TrEMBL record, chains A, B:
Signal peptide feature range: none
Organism: Natronococcus occultus SP4
CCA-adding enzyme C-terminal domain residues: 302-447
Record GO terms (molecular function): ATP binding; CCA tRNA nucleotidyltransferase activity; CCACCA tRNA nucleotidyltransferase activity; magnesium ion binding; tRNA binding
Domain Polymerase nucleotidyl transferase: 60-158
GO biological process assignments: RNA repair; tRNA 3'-terminal CCA addition
Binding of Mg(2+), residues: D84, D86, D135
Keywords: ATP-binding, Magnesium, Metal-binding, Nucleotide-binding, Nucleotidyltransferase, RNA repair, RNA-binding, Transferase, tRNA processing
EC number: 2.7.7.72
Protein name in UniProt: CCA-adding enzyme
Lineage of source species: Archaea, Methanobacteriati, Methanobacteriota, Stenosarchaea group, Halobacteria
Function in brief: Catalyzes the addition and repair of the essential 3'-terminal CCA sequence in tRNAs without using a nucleic acid template. Adds these three nucleotides in the order of C, C, and A to the tRNA nucleotide-73, using CTP and ATP as substrates and producing inorganic pyrophosphate. tRNA 3'-terminal CCA addition is required both for tRNA processing and repair. Also involved in tRNA surveillance by mediating tandem CCA addition to generate a CCACCA at the 3' terminus of unstable tRNAs. While stable tRNAs receive only 3'-terminal CCA, unstable tRNAs are marked with CCACCA and rapidly degraded.
Record field: compositional bias (Acidic residues): 1-12
Amino acid sequence: MSDDEADRDEDGATGSNDGGELEDVLSTVQSRVDPDADERARLRAVAATLTERAEDAATDLVAGADVLQVGSSARGTWISGDRDIDVFVRFPPELDRETLAEYGLEVGHATVPDGHEEYAEHPYVKGEVEGFDVDVVPCFRLESATEIRSAVDRTPFHNRYLEERLDEALAADVRLAKQFLKGIGVYGSDLRTQGFSGYLTELLVVEYGGFRSLLEAAADWHPPVEIDPEDHGADISFGDPLVVIDPTDPERNVAAVCAMENVARLQHYAREFRTAPSVEFFEPREPTPLTEAALREHLSDRGTTPVAVRFETPELVDDQLYPQLRKSLAGIVTGLEDCGFDVLRAQTFAAETAVVLAELSVAERPAIERHLGPPIHVRAHAEGFYDAYADDPEVYGPFVDGDRYVAERAREWTTARAFLESDAVFDVGLGAHVETALEDGYDVLVGEETAALLPEFDRQLGAYFDPQP
Amino acid sequence: MSDDEADRDEDGATGSNDGGELEDVLSTVQSRVDPDADERARLRAVAATLTERAEDAATDLVAGADVLQVGSSARGTWISGDRDIDVFVRFPPELDRETLAEYGLEVGHATVPDGHEEYAEHPYVKGEVEGFDVDVVPCFRLESATEIRSAVDRTPFHNRYLEERLDEALAADVRLAKQFLKGIGVYGSDLRTQGFSGYLTELLVVEYGGFRSLLEAAADWHPPVEIDPEDHGADISFGDPLVVIDPTDPERNVAAVCAMENVARLQHYAREFRTAPSVEFFEPREPTPLTEAALREHLSDRGTTPVAVRFETPELVDDQLYPQLRKSLAGIVTGLEDCGFDVLRAQTFAAETAVVLAELSVAERPAIERHLGPPIHVRAHAEGFYDAYADDPEVYGPFVDGDRYVAERAREWTTARAFLESDAVFDVGLGAHVETALEDGYDVLVGEETAALLPEFDRQLGAYFDPQP
């Protein structure tokens, strides 16, 4: 294959491994991720049964309904062991939403007799059939993806687009790509991961003509990367580091959720893998749980002061919880830094409890702070500032620095703990449910007190002190 | 007088004191600064004698030479007690510089028999005559100030310009203005003070038509303030907060030396004086000497950590010393801040020893620092960074933050003392003679060790801990 021959980047800095070792690794991975004939046959049989059941139920309800198997199991891109079957039931667009929902559930229960109802944009039925996890989802049957009324209506168009382009070889490469992205921790478009969705992965493999050439390209990406498979001529600026215009909808960036860090990680690991191929890239890293002794040693080596705000985890699905945790993390970091408590690194974790952890370079400040006043030539403001401080015996100044007054006045918070334990923490821009959780009470842990986060977060802290790209 | 009637600024924020109190204060000051008839007569007599002696000596040497009394004593703008008489000897422009210097000294010695030679741009003779300090300075007699060959050639033009415009009343106001500027600490265009020269003060009083209206105007200045008494139409951007185009030379800003702080101080004290007139504004503040006990109390109240670099004062005139000290101060402050040692305020003093003092909000940093690497898409740099740190057991990371690598590595200096005691202090951009002085050895004082600066700098430190506008 041409794309794993020895090559150099434009700067001549890096050569990839010779193809032999890389191909050996890929065969090993392929043998793990490719479903064998037996698995394929079983899936095909179950899918056929489900489709038949759904078709019978749907056409009983309304003429013009049809049924479509979609997703990776429909396209032969699932990874061996995945047991998801997605059955989409398409109803005529004349139906109103309520009837669609009602019919959808009826068909769902008929298809998956032991199923239960779940609620996304539409309610749908989910359940187990012969060891497979089955979703039966209703949607509208439309002429074009631009007419969609909800996200699920788009799925049949995605499915058709990919089915037309994925042959056996590309499907195999999709499996490699998915496993690679899983291995490096960036697979999944949920809002916790903010990584690469299955559909995005398949589009990238199709676009670049395979897994190896996708890696070769990604290693040299200069974000923002814009990919427009159907040449829609994107006239919309997305502002995302990776833009893949949906072939079925020119206004949608399939990679909108993908965080800049995860694009960068793909670039990093693409280079690393090509330089020194190993199956380890395809195996998600399990962080070593941190012991209390190791925590103390890290803190002593680093000389920093960790502070943690710990509270009961709000009862939310991950797609709601993690954006709120990240918002709260950003707010608390900004709040700390605005008070002069410099943050070296920060992170948020959640399990039974949730934690915003900030590792401080500076955890204490002196009793006074420099307070910069207005330019002296802005007379009314300047006089107001001067008069406010001139007679305060606690204040040094006002004096003149450059063209401004400066006063040295008492600092509100001289320790990070005092700041975090005060009501000021509610003014930093917390996520709404995090704010509610904090109102019910929270702990502030400082320095070695953070050992109280063990063992609940021993793996997260293990990863924190062994940070990887 | 119209300019001290009750008035309001545009924002209506401030009323000035009613004129009576202000006028009472000004009369008191006037009675102190106005030379009485006896003093005037004595000065006139001595000046006449000196002029005659100089004329005789000069015309003996070269036809076309003449003599001019210049400066505040010539214009009646000196403050009572000042005892400076400046005699300028003008030679024809055909003379070469060497002959000018030679003749100048000859005339100088003839005029001031006990005088000694000093060296500015030209050598000149300085000495005491009947209790007056006399300078006899040679210069070229030119048609226009734009033809000047050195700064002293300009003086006769300045003198003529002011003599034509200063009447008795304005001269009295110049004396008030000078004493006010002395009182608030901004009089003098030497490079230690960086304030208002005598010539600048006289121009401002002439321009605004008096001391009271100068204060009224200054209180409302919006720097950059541009004053162009002869409407030269300045086509040069000076970049200074106060620009007074020299009436005798359109390319020169008479206020070029005047620091932004000193312009701001004039604005501040102009407002304060007009609001609450007092003779104190005309009396230079004598800072209370700081005791060791008071120093300790300030440090404990403020919670800061002062650090001082102390060395033998380079043997330089103030006009060379203070710019070098200020440059060294700026360099050391930047050096400290670049290492994470946040500076609250800093100052330099000189006597027998010289000191750069920085008061730190943060005097210690943890063992590690965040080191931001290149964007991951800048492949050659990114790979170089990653390879440099990936296998270093002392380094945490590299990991990915945004689109960049970050490594947490050992910090070079964890205390300000270690930084200041290291050779790194020579890389911060010290003044040349300060650098030489430091090479001969210096002390680093931290925290209460700065008590060793007492009593040498007890007044400077008294002022430091009682900062005024």
